[in-house]
Amino acid sequence: AAxxxxxxxxxxxxxxxxxxxxxARIAVMNAMIAKLTPLQTPLAKPSRNDWLARFPESGQxxxxxxxxxPHTITGRRTVLCIQPLGDFSKSEDSIVALAAEFLGNYFGLxxxxxxxxxxxxxxxxxxxxxxxxxxxxxxxxYLLDDVLKPALPxxxxxxxxxxxxxxxxxxxxxxxxxxxxxxxxxxxxSIHRFGNPDAGDPAFQTALLRTLKLASHETGHMxxxxxxxxxxxxxxxxxxxxxxxxxxxxxxxxxxxxxCLATGISPEAHLRGLAEFCRRHxxxxxxxxxxxxxxxxxxxAAP
Length: 303
Hints:
This protein is of the alpha/beta class. It has ten helices and nine strands. The protein has a six-stranded mixed sheet with strand order 1-8-9-6-2-3, sandwiched between helices. Strands 4-5-7 form a three-stranded mixed sheet. Helix 4 links the parallel strand 2 and strand 3 (110-113).
């Protein structure tokens, strides 16, 4: 199996889990959902190897998310920290830097990239040779628990590790795109299987778009957002690259409402920032889709 995993653990302290959201804010989000829903495409029946065919899930409504005590931006933990892990090519370095910029627009948070951490001394228990690709992989649990968790800065809402090394989470999995630990506010994602960004502009754009989708999707999990099972959405589960490429970069309206309540960003600021980012980097189909949502809310993005 492939894809991305979420590790769930004990509930967060009450200080970080507001029991309810202001009714006026909920009303604003419900009005936004009503305006954007006509633009949505229902999620099609999964093919045999798609995420929902392998891992049946019931999804999560906006109301269910609100009542789940999700992680939100509170107190001093307001920064999204990026931790590069291991070596990157020049183009891979550019992709990580652009992903950091994109995530700042996506969540409306300050982003800080930390000094790269080497992966030269990974213990034997935390690595293996993949029997299909014959390439060495690193176990995600080691990176989450032994590398990222101890390094979580005091002001970090989340700490996101990026690596160009291939990952796997344990028995029964061939590889994994990424894994997040909700209880520890850390996650790690690999760009290893997203193509060679050094092979020219089209390959760079493909690898970039796949990285943006993965990083924003996985970070969404860290704010309590489960996989979307109703609409074509950035929070849909993905079990293989074709499925990743098929899903959009933009969120469906209920998932957008969850993100806005979790981080405090407005739907308009989220959509405008992403549309302008995508336009600058020639991701025009994604920019058009985001601009369509923004227009439906009465705003305009850069042409």
